[in-house]
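Prompt: May I have another protein with tokenized structure?
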Amino acid sequence: MLFSSTPSLPLLRIGRIFDEIEADRLFHCLLAETPWNDGYYLAAGRRFALPRLQAWYADPGIDYRYADNLHNSHAWTPTLQALREQIQQISGLHFNAVLLNLYRDGQDSVGWHADDEPDLGSAPAIASLSLGATRRFSVRPRPQGEAQHVALPAGTLLVMDSPFQQEWEHAVLGDPYVMSPRLNLTFRRVYGAA
């Protein structure tokens, strides 16, 4: 069951939906079956190393662009389709795409940002499933307010309800004490079609 993490973060619903055994099974299954990108992206005509690996799965015709880099879209696997159906039922939301991020250890990260791209519509809601190592999910009000941190152990589902993306930024900051990989799946509803 999902619940608000704290009164100060009412737009986040957080709950543990898988026990350690099932979370570990899903982690290893997805790690093995996912065709990860090469870890690089283009921006302003230059090539940069992305501090994590990614893969994009979506319904036909749904693309994802990060900076100037268009991700190859993959068809849903049976594992991901089953997860989508379960997360839709739990969250009450509908998703047509998922971005998988593999943080290989604590050196991998994602900086402060909001998932507010035009293709996500005017009021995006995103469901984020964590598997593998526990990492801190950091949030701060826009623009650049005081940060709060929420630990996300394996099997935790975090739902960012609207208007979270318009009012808050979030990040998974580097942590030199984390030695193990973390897999994060962000389920989205994308409105832009190819």
The first helix runs from residue 20 to 33.
